[in-house]
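hey can u run this one w/ iron/sulfur cluster bound, need the structure tokens asap thx
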Amino acid sequence: MTPAAKIKKIYDLLEEYFGDLGWWPAETGFEVIVGAILTQNTSWANVEKAIAGLRKKGLLRPAKIAGMDTARLSRLIRSSGYYRMKARRLKEISRFVMAECGGKLSRLKSRDTAKLREKLLAVKGVGPETADSILLYALDKPVFVVDAYTKRIFFRHALTCENASYEEVQSLARGCFPTDTKALNQFHALLVETAKRFCAKKAPLCDECPLRGIK
Ligand code: SF4
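ok here u go:
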């Protein structure tokens, strides 16, 4: 099977199994951005608590976070771990959003994806996975998000080598998968769900997994 055929098969099997997962769990594009920063090195459950706290206080807005006292922001997002560093990162990305579009994310959607990605990567604390998550889930840009789960599943199905870089995995998928935002959104969600339910780092549950027949 060619890599393109295998990737298509993986997508089809997972979609058949899980259905439409409707990611990302957020009410606004800016909330996606906040979630993408807070989820670094922690579980989503911890992120949800921090986001709920910010929402309750009406602070889930770039202008509010950009101008907030860092110590206060740190306290509010404490549940997400590494909270002092993440507070600084949230302020950086909020300032970026304010500077680039005055807080109106819809203005960024028509911008060139590659240039926007470059600018995002220049923001302190934004790496390739965070930048691509923001592009795809907050700005509807057609990019393939690579995370540790994607790398694990692709490696275990002989699509990439164990130490493949972010760019290697992304360019393989880019050449094989449609550049359709909805499908890219769904594919990332499907891979995350598969890894969480079946493809653990240790002792994967291959016998129960929808991808068990893919060699
Ligand atoms: S659990 Fe097994 S079959 Fe499922 S994705 Fe992981 S390696 Fe593949």
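DSSP finds eleven helices and no strands in the chain. anyway lmk if its weird
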